Amino acid sequence: MRLFEDVFHRHRDRTVFAVLIAASLALLALPEPVQLDVARGVLDRALLPIQRVTTLLYDYSDVREENERLRRMVATLVLERERLLQFRDERERLRRLAEFKEEQTRRLVPAEVIGRDLDRIQTNLIIDKGAGDGLRERMPVFSYGGLAGTLSRVFPESAWVQLLCSKNLPISCVDKRSRVVGVLEWRHRNLFEMKHVGGNEDVVAGDTLLTSGFGGTIPKGFPVAIVTRVATSADGLSLRVDAYSPIDFLALEEVFVMTEEIPWERSLFYDEADTALMRDVILKAGPGR
Amino acid sequence: MRWLLPVLSAALFLALQAALASRIAIGAVAPDFVVVCAVLFGLQKGPIPGALFGFAIGLVVDLGNPGFLGLNALTKTVVGYAAGRMGSATSPGSVVLFVVFLVAAFAHDVVYYILYLWPGVGGAFMSIVTIALPSALYTAVIGIAVERILALLGARVVTAGGKARR
After folding, report:
1. How confident is the model over B70-89, as pLDDT tens digits?
2. What is the ipTM, given to two decimal places?
3. Which of B23, B28, B85 is facing A189, going by the closest CB pair?
């Protein structure tokens, strides 16, 4: 005991340093579910209010510019929507005539990014929708470019999105053209590698990789990445398939969480609130203005 | 009340990291305000407080990426401790301080990328060359700017060796 005291007094800084390094390594060695549990409770209570304030501050400067952009987008969408509504009615009439069964679609819940993790590689986003909006863990999250990640933790009023650009979120994918299946793993920034592809499989640069639906968590057929390079491994038994995601993970501001299946006719496209809003926009943009 | 200043400065730099770092990033190259904070604290207070502060602030950052809980605690402990050792050895001028920030940020990122991307050494090497190196330069510039602002506000960046730099 005395020896330890002597060593500690003589090398106090090194001892503290060694203890802290050992503590860090011990934390790193914990199983992932335990690590998640430790962080889960602390973060939602402590950091979320701070993140909300900082995000509010820094969003304020973007509001004018974004308003302008959104107004232009709404004007285009109003016209396009009118055309689509006509197509919908026509399609429904034809489907009823042909006696097709009712088609299902998925509901997309739009969510705003209100925070990010502070880590060097940003692999998590915080969004402003949570369990109260029908979100549950492992639901897929999309951006305009395709699959962006999955919900890793869901709180009553917020949720954490684990982005595809993280090491522990491999995605089962299928080549849109040749239907070759593999597992997409993140490598660097928005670059990925599709693994487990046999040496004689048909994958070429430019192919689109879609979600395969295997595992049942992420639905089938949504774009994930585009193949950039294909090379045969040294033993010729497998292919090295490099791909990139068109999503800029660092710049995501809004995402869409895919929730339960609903009848096609009841999708967001037909939401009454949307219809009222559109009517309002059309009236305001009428001939008198 | 001795803990109040470290807590407040940690909160300030974490807020800067959350609100500003991605805003002023050039692509994936972003400054690391948390490293700047750990270095300044280590230089001022010495190796033990520097290592403890680095560990604590790293742990807070880790809460945001709990799949790798302990990784930032480890890297920032090293940064805080090393800065503390350097602080007790020298009273840095601007050029030396710039090099200290540069080396600290680069060493931090090298350890970080290797551990995070292990066993993918190729990806880690690519990230170190294309992101860590320019980010370290960026962090060093920001570090000097922060130190200058602190000096203008009258705060003395005192080294643990007892020498003061105005």
Report:
1. 889 999 999 999 988 887 65
2. 0.80
3. B28
